[in-house]
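Usage example:
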Amino acid sequence: MNSQLRRLRAELFATPADAALSLVLITLLGLGAFGFLRWALTQAQWAVVRVNSTLFAVGRYPVEQQWRLWLLTALLVAASGATWGLLRAHPRPDRTGVRWPRNDRLAVGLLALIALAVPWALALTLAIQSRWWGLLLLLVLCRWLAGRHGANLSPTGRRLAALVWPVIYLVGMVLISGGLGLVTVSPSEWGGLMLTLLASSFAILLCFPIGVLLALGRRSDLPLLRWGSVLYIEFIRGAPLITLLFLGQNILGFLLPGGLAPERVWRAAWVLTFFAAAYLAEAVRSGLAAVPRGQLEAARSLGLSYPKALQHVVLPQALRVALPAMVGQFISLLQDTTLLSLIGLLELLGTARTVMANPAFLGRNGEVYLTLALLFWGCCAALGLGSRALERRLDPHAVPSAT
Amino acid sequence: MSQPSSELMIEARAVEKWYPNGFQALRGASLTVRRGEVVVIMGPSGSGKSTFIRTFNALEDFQKGSITVDGIVLSDDLRNIDAVRREVGMVFQQFNLFPHLSVLDNLTLAPVLVRKRPKAEVEQQAWALLERVGIAEQAGKYPGQLSGGQQQRVAIARALCMEPRILLFDEPTSALDPEMVREVLEVMQNLAADDITMVVVTHEVKFARHVAHRVVLMAEGEVVEEAEPEVFFTNPSHQRTRRFLDQIL
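Running the assembly step on the lines above writes:
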């Protein structure tokens, strides 16, 4: 303790000027924190969040069908836990991994805190609260099982395990929208965080291959392909997203014969996809430019065909370089989904605005917006953490771990 | 040193190449290489020696002349180009290892993808090759964690893993620190004792003297002199060769 105090003193009060600056900053931070806490604990009325928590989560999704969303959440949680464990069980070939590193234990602790505190703070019924605990248990159990037995999995098994994700995505689509014996829930009844995550994950998943193809097209030797890609990228990047969203809502109805035009939600999701693809293409292009020419030559001289050389040699390196920029794109894409509220969709922001328009919650904007900010921050932080972990795993210059 | 047979592995006749900017890099360069032969190409920088050997596996195209490699005529036919590349390995000045793959995966990538051989079998061969170039203990590391000399030895092993009949070396030691040159040359010298055909662009006089069957001097996009090393270094027939040797010896 004493040594920590000494370190603190050395870092904050080394010189008189440092000390003065530190004092001013500490005072400002303290005042800010005090003001915020006073507002959050005494003035703010969190009933608006407590009462509307389901609305924020899933919008006006029919109550009797919400078990489907719980099931989907459970599937996602199980897959996340299993993937997490598998990754720990299969460290990089040049490293000896630890099955439960400190960060993982911290993460489990944090998640447990969230699973216990959030439903309690929202004053959810005991039945719902226990579902949160169940999800937590499921996560830890899958993490534990996959970490313990994952090392026995053959390479083919691992590749099959990765297929779980697209399968869950498709299953999730069915669970959300219905069909195959389930009652149909029309997209107009989707909303809240669910719609935000659905629209952004759809756009992220689809804009990735489109963006890579556009980037390759822009570097192609075929003039038609090259100019087509350039034209597309520059046009999309020159137009504000909101105009494209309005355009999508209006034009698709005219272009496609009646009935064929997709539902409003899907129209918006496609516009988001095509918008993000243009930006992603530029991120990927910067990655492609960073791969030395010799890499392609070495691959070709070993007899790899051009597509194989791209797939196994050039793209893995280009995408690793482009990863931070791409994740930045994904994060802004997630936040851009708030624009969907302007074309009348009830995603997170749209839902929030209907709540704030309710006379019963007049003047409770602060609480609502703060909740929104926290939710968005949580999603973006998860994306950012995931991307940094991926970067570390793929970094070819990283020194092998000593342990 | 094994003796080359009479079978022709590379036959380049009057090859001419222009770069898109109009610069003529090759002005009728000709060379024949027999099976099992080690040919060293020397020459001042800009003489077209790298360009020349890069035409042998179609990394560079050419406009006039003809090249036949292992009985395959190099033309615009893509199948021919792929066929040639399978038989011709190349070692680059800058190693060009795949930095995102472990050393072992660098070796096994092409045999598995191109030759469609079972992974386990290729891995066994890869281990043997790494053993042979003296870096088996680094198999799990990534290229960025190795020294330049080690990287170049991995690159040689990677080329060998495709079991090529011809190996091309494009200044394999030029990017190395002096103390690492020897370990790479030793590996190359061991290879030369085998049946494999080697064409080496290098400035290493000692290697050319002791390992090559023939030494070739290129200048201004042409083959100027072709002789056994003893003759090449002591009694060359061309003025141009003498001038070059005066500069490097």
